[in-house]
Structures are given as C-alpha cells and as structure tokens.
Protein 1
Amino acid sequence: MSSSQPIQAAIYVRMSTESQNYSTDHQRAKIHEYALSKRIEVVREYVDEGKSGLDIRRRTGLRSLIDDVQSGNADFQLIIVYDVSRWGRFQDVDEAAYHEHTCRRAGIKVVYSGEQFSDDATPLGALMKSIKRMMAAEYSRELSTKTFNAQCRFTEIGFKQGGHAGYGLRRLALTKDGTPRRVLEYGEAKGAVTDRVILIPGPAHEAITIRRVYALYLEQKLSEPAIARLLNAEGIASEFDRPWTHSMVNSLLTNLKYCGTLAFNRKSCKLSSRRKSNPHAEWVVNEGAVEPLISLSLFAQARDERARRVRRYTLDELLVLLQRCHETHGRVNAKIIAADPSMPDPQLFVRGFGSLIAAYDAAGLIPCPSHVFVETKKLIAAKLRDLFAEVKRLALSSGATVHEVKAPHTLVINQCVRVRIEIATRRRPKRGLVNWRVMPLLDADFVLTARLHGDTHELIDYFLIPAVKLANGPLYLKESNLERLAELRYLSLASMFGP
C-alpha cells in the first residue's frame, strides 16, 4: 500500500447504561476526530447498544467483528475503540487480552483513541493497558456491589426491584416523595430514575383465579401441568395473554409476594455469572410489603404439599408407606394412594418398582382384583403373540402359504382358509362347571383356540374348531365334553400340523 493512501479501519462502539458520557454518538465523534488526525479512513462500524461489557456472549457487534477478522476477508487493517472499557469490562482481564490478540494475530491492530497509550506498543504502553483492563473490571465489581446494596435497602423499605409484577398484581410507580404516579403496563419502564415501584393487587378476577389454583392443587391434588391445561381449556388468559404453562402455575404456588411478602436475592447472576438459587439465609425479605392475595397459612400448605410431592424416597421408604396405607384403609390401589395426603404420587411406585403390582409384591401385600386382571391381560397378550408366531411358522414349515390380514390374529392359509387364533381363559361361574368359552366369529373359517391354565398360566391344549360348530353361539370347553370334542383337540401345535 502506498504511504499516500490512508489506512482503512473499522470502529467498535459499545454503550451499556451507566453514563451518557459513553453514548455511541460521543464515541463515534471522538474516534472520527482521531481517525482524521491520523489520516485513517473508517470503512466499517460495529456497534453494541445497551450491552454489558462483562462477557462476549450477548455482544453481537463484537462477535461479528471477531468473526470477520478470523475469516481473513476483513477489508480493514486497524480497529479503533474509544477506550479499554469499551472493548470490555471482562472480569478475567486475560479474556480482553485474548480477543485483542486474536485480532493482532490476523494482522489487524487494535488502538484506543481515548487513551494516552492509544497506539503505543512499548512495554510501558502494555503495562498501562493491563492496568486499565483491571480498573475496568474492578469498576464493574464495585458498581455491582453498590447496586446490590441499594436494591437490598429499597426492598427493606418496600419497593420492588425490577421484573414484571406477576399474575394478579400490578406495578405502581411512585415519585421520589411517595406520590403515586401511574400503574405501569407490562414492559413499561418507570418515568424517572428517582421513581420507585411498589406492587398492588390487580383485577379481582385474577385474584379469584389464583385462589382457585391453590384449591386445585391442595384439595383436588392436581399437578401443575394439569392445572395449566385446565386453565387453557377454559380460555382463562394469563398475565402475558399466552397459554398457561407449568412454570406460570409454579410461580403462583411458590412466590412469596402472593402472601404479602417481598423477597429479593432468591436467585442471582452477578457479573454475568450463571444464574443460581441462593440459600434462604441470603434472601432479603420484607413481610407485609404487599397486600396479600392468599393467606400465609394457605401458602404454607402449598409449600408443604409441594415438598411432599417432590421428595425423593428410597425404595424401602416406599414399601413402608405402602404397608402403612394398607393398614389404614384395609386395602390399597392407585385411587387410595392418590387420595391419601400422606402418600406420594402413585407413579412414584411405578417408576421405582416397574408397576404397582410389583410394588405390592415387594411390600408383601395382596393386589386388588382389578390389578391382577390387568397383569393377567398383559400375560395373555404376550402368549397370544407367541402363539400366533408359532402357528405361522408351523404352517409355513408344512409347505402351506400363509398371509396375514388386517383382522386381529388372523391368518389366510393356502389363500382360501381363514384361521382366527385365540386363547381361552378359565371361567368359574357361580353355577355349573369350570369352563373355557370360545366365542363365534363371523370373519373366520376356523378358530384355533388354546386353553390357558388358571393357576400356572401355561397352555393346556389346542382346539381347531370349524365356524359351523359355533353357528348357534359360544362353545364351552369343560371336562365333561372334552371326550366328545376329541377330534378337534390337540395336545400340541406340532401334532395339529402333522408329521
């Protein structure tokens, strides 16, 4: 490049919120004055408006600048920044140096137009730059401490510190002498820096909804997601006019402001650190700062109920609870467990033991008939699948053609004979003999039925029954007619399909 040609440069400007002295317009003006005095041509600009300098994550302007530098296609040889603090107030000063080194390694120098060492590459300039970086970081730490202390003090007075009001509440702006100014809309900022904000009750119908949420949670034992679904189904609008979510309902049940208490510092993310929950001892609490929408006792009941629901139980503890529930009610099932306030959710037993039946067995309890029936149905379904597969295999091995059809458990053999495969369970009627019932089927030529032993749940024998035998209704297999039906009976599937 000829010495008569100006150096092409990009500028980077950033403003957070701490001072108009650092407005982007002010930075631009000073940078352009510097560029003019040095015969530098500004060809590109990168801007971060209202962005903290503590890290690079949310600074799209600086990230775009670094990306362009690393791509090797940058059309500038210099980056001009107003001062070290505009580059960043990184808490790790090495991070600021790292980003600057990334640019320098790509052949692009970073200079600070507002610093005395703006383009000084001497050891003294490097030392001054390091000191400035530490000063920038320390400024943020001091400002964070001062701001936090002020927020604690204002919370103790009764003023809300940032954030939205919450469903059922509204923010009221006060002048510095305590005169009400106006109720703030969602997302609206207070009118002046000296204004303060307090919480006041919102519309009456929102307070009614909050009390109803507590009733659904405590009396009807609904979960938070279930409550959200119910409110959405009824068309009840949330604070944001968006569908209710689990977290919205959770806020109603856990935020102290609904029972009249302001709590600050429950969670924190100081200096752009990860957001964390703080121990109760670190909270700043002001009881009675807000007009309560629910009683303190009701809030405490919801807190205790939530603790009961989320408590982690060992398997031994769950077994003891099951035994105690059985002693109290004389029997135990999912409905009884769900209705007993001393018991956790029935699904906790399912997750711990695989099923309620397995939990009952582990606790030495006799499961109720309905659960036995469900487990038996599962066992029969599994055996029926195995039986169907075995019939198909044997038919194919005997040289027949076999096709499955949409009808359940039905095979078409040799393209003409439809066979329905069933398992008959033992029946104990109040009158008459124990029997196994085979129901008539209109869509099959034959019914292949296997009898299931009532105690061992093993298959006893097999019957290949033509549809005409079922024309007049069900056929009942019992000890008294097995000899008469001997031509239909097979002791094994293999014998049914021949040698």
Protein 2
Amino acid sequence: MPPLLVPRRDDALPERLARSAAERRGTLIRTEEVLGWIDERRRANRFRVERIPFEAMRGWSFDPSTGNLGHDSGRFYTVEGYHVTIGRGVEREWRQPILNQPEHAILGLLTKTFDGVLHVLMQAKMEPGNCNLVQLSPTVQATWSNYTKVHKGGDVRYLEYFLGPRRGRVLADSLQSEQGTWFDRKTNRNIVVEVDGDVPEHPDFCWLTLGQIGSLLRQDNVINMDARSALSIVPFTSGADAALHADTDVLSWFTGMRTFYDLRAERIPLAEVPHWKRGPDSIDHEDGRHFSIVAVEVEADTREITAWTQPLLRPCSEGVACFLTRTFDGVPHYLARARVEGGFVDTVELGPTVLCQPEDYAHLPAADRPPYLDLVLSADPARIRFDARQSEEGGRFLDAVLRYQVIEIDDLPYDPPDDYCWVTRDQLRAFVQHGHYLNVQARTLLTALNSMEET
C-alpha cells in the first residue's frame, strides 16, 4: 500500500521561485523584446473599440420596470442600483450604479521549468477597456459564461489545466475579490499550476520568468489587472520572522475591524438611484464626478467571439493606490488600511494606505479628504520606490487607470489611526493566500513589492 501521508509544504519551492524572480533578462525571449512581441500581436490581429449609444447595443437592453441594464441571455453581468449604509458613529449612506456579476471567473497561471528556471505562460490579450487594448494577461482569464460558451464562441485555450482532472501540480489557489466599489461581491478563482510535460504552443502566448514580469510591471499598462492579481498569490517567502506586530495580533486587529463596522449593501432598481441621470449614450452622476456607464462596440479577431457590444464602467478621472512605507529596526513595513467597500463579501479587506480618485476630493478642504492623500500627492520624487500607471479590469472598465506607488516616509508614526496597521511584505504574502484578505489594489502592490529588493 503506498504511503498515505505527504509533506505539508514543498520546502524547495521558495528557492525555485526566488531563482525565477532573479532572472530578469530572460531565457526563451529577452525582456527587451517582449514589448515588441506585444506590438506584433497587436498588429497581427484586428481590434476596434468604438463608443455607441445604448440603443445600438445588440443583446443588451434596459428593463422597463427596474431600469436595470442586462443581457438577453440572463448571463454575463447587469448594471443595477446599489444602496449602501456603513455604520460607525455617524452613518454614511449613498446610492449608486453597480455591476452585478455573480459568476466566478478563473484567473489561471500555467508554469513550467525551462533550463532550471520556472516560467509563466502569459497571454497577449485584447480587452476593450484597456487604454492600449492589448496587455499581458494570465494563461486563462475567463468567466463561467465565457468557458461554457454562452456567447456561442470558441474554446478557451489551456482551460483544461485548471478545470477537471488535474494535469499538473497546484502551487497556489484562492478566491479573491475585485473592486468592491464597482462590483457587488465579485469573486474570482486565482490559481497557479505547474506542469512538466509538453504544452501546446500558440502565437499569442509566451513563457516569461517571474523576474521578467516584475521588470515589465514597472512600465505603464503592460501587465493587466487579472495577471497582477494571480501573480500576487505566488507563494514567495523570505524567512523573515521579525515584525512590529505578530501575525496573530494583525489578524485580531483585522477581525476586529470586520466586526466593528455595520455594513448593509443591497441591490435596488437602477431607476431608483437618485442623482444619476441616464442619457442616450451614458449614465452619469449629476456633479460630473465618480464614473459613468457607457456602451461600446468591439471587434477582436483573437477573442472567443470576434464581434460584440457591451456596457462598460468608465471612471471620470485617474485614481491613485499607494503604500506608504517606513523601516523599523531594519525591517521595511507598509501601512495597510482596513477598507470598507459595499461590494466586499466580508465587509473589510486590507487595502493600500491611500486608494481613491483624487479629483473626487479636490473641491473639499484638507480635513475632509482621505487621510495621507495630500502627503502622497506632494511626495518628494526621491522617496518614491515604485511608480507605474496600470489599467484595471479591461473587460468591464473603460480607460480605468490607477497610479500605483510605494513611497518611503521616514517620520510616519509608529501608532497610526485605528483603521491602519503596519505590516511587512511577508505578512502580506501570508495573508494573500487566504481569500478576501487583501483587496485587488493591495494585490497589485504586493506583486510590485515581490519584484523589488527590500533594503
């Protein structure tokens, strides 16, 4: 009878991941050639995205009784109303449009070792909302509606490595959230699988090391949001045990934040959302801030279906997502915030120090703007450790770009406000292995931190 027990951990994996992260030049394709390869894939295929009025959409319509915007199939997603109330002393309450997409998506990274170095299979993927259309995505990025062919399109390549009988070894696997301000409880399965055998080739895919991906992440709008999310769960460890707060103490603080807030969020008819006006080609807030709902017509030779129309959420301005960092006794720490967002599954997730669209607060006095925002906006460039603009989910958002930063500030206090906590990179790495602990913007920044040498 074969042994029943197996090791709980792969003790060799951290060293293999570190070796891949250290290989920045590339072995199968040189790093300096990757952008040219993406451009070649962009030129080799036909892509077109055009704004259209709502009435020109095919298969999408507004419900005459609720005003909700949905697909005739009842699948994909709907644009509905949302009523959010957050209780903490003085209650905050508002109504807004929201994207409701109850089905899970798969964000899968396929990995394989070449010449002793672990590589990741990345896809040059067109998404209609990307500012430059084509970016590097996970090996598989597909919703349930996509891979069950609700749209009657083609097969999702490499899906068989992530569904059904196992064809490889799982390195990481967890359910993670998307934007809780724009989605109602949206969850994706982030999964990393390693294979040993031959993998079919396709011209829209290429193998890159973790170090190459980390280098490309420092450039604007190259690695898409879903790839950044899936990369964040790669189980790096450095063996550093020291931190300002023990893991149990951080988790206790985090659990306390989750129980402290009284969050009530419910979908309501879109027609009942005040201060938002529907026109022939957009739904907008009356003050011109926040975001709009618009419609687009898309052509893309490389997608499972080559032509379609759909609504997208379009932010009115660029956002910022920043971790402030300070070193305590030689160990870098990052100031995480317990963020409450209406669309979170469990009320609170750890987010960056600052996360907002600054223009939404530009008209307010300093005391009413998000904490630390003015410090981030006025930071000395010499203190910025990471700085790149990155697109958010291009399948649902149009021209949604955040400026991601890590900024070192030496005189930040040891004791921050109650909803903030100092954590190390290794603590973030441990927490992201659990679903709904780090929000999607914090996961992008963790992927950036994983690509950086800490001092």
